[in-house]
Amino acid sequence: MTQSSWRKLYKQLKAKPAIARKFLKHNKPKERKTGYAIHRCERCGRIGANVGQYGLNFCRQCFREIAEEIGFKKYS
Fold first, then answer.
1. Which of 12, 53, 59, 75 is the most buried (most CB within 10 A)?
2. For the residues of 14-71, what is the DSSP string, one character each?
3. Paired strand residues for 50
């Protein structure tokens, strides 16, 4: 079960707190402390190709979209 599908299911269970607690106990994905899965894009949630320089934590696709707004220039 991916993290996004887990969030969708949990959203549906908010009206039923007892069932939601049981669901979380058995199905919540564990928090990652090591490995490539801890570096996620803050904007879209992709795992690969992160630009972590300057504390940005964006994937390369999101970085290209918002680079001008942040203040980066394209020199070539």
1. 59
2. GG-HHHHHHHHHHHPPPPP-SSGGG---TTT---SSEE-GGG--EEHHHHHHHHHHHT
3. 59
CATH 4.10.830.10 residue window(s) in the chain: 38-76
| Domain 38-76 coded CATH 4.10.830.10 | yes
For residue 56, give the amino acid letter: L
Q: Which residue has the tokens 């079960």?
A: 1
Q: What's the pLDDT tens digit per position in 22-73?
A: 888 887 777 778 887 788 888 888 888 888 888 888 999 999 999 999 999 8
- What span, in angstroms and rounded, lies between the C-alpha atoms of 57 and 53? 7
pTM over 0.90? The answer is no
Is the predicted pLDDT of residue 4 greater than 80, yes or no?
no
Q: Note whether 29 and 6 are within 8 A (CB).
A: yes
